[in-house]
Structure formats: structure tokens, C-alpha cells
Design brief:
mainly alpha; 57 residues; single chain
Amino acid sequence: MGEITSVRAGETWGRRLEGAGAYLLRYGLVVVLLWVGALKFTAYEAEAIVKFVDNSP
């Protein structure tokens, strides 16, 4: 019986680790996308598209 509880404890640890990994991936991607989106409102980005806007009809 000691082995059965050991396997179940290992499965629980694996599920926790999977959940933590999914959480980190999901919210890490959200942070990156928000960061890139926020950069679109900076002066640096506005200056980068001036050459395209000046030559557009």
C-alpha cells in the first residue's frame, strides 16, 4: 500500500506542476501582448511609421 500512495502523491505533484506551467504560459503571453500593445502609443513607435504615413495617398 505504501507504493500506491506514493504513486498518487506523484500524480498530484505532476498535476500541480502542469497547472503552474499552464498558468505561467497563459499569463506570460498576456503580459507580453499588453507590453507590445502599450508600446504602440509611445513617441518612438510614432516616429517609426512617419515614413509610411508621409508617402501614403
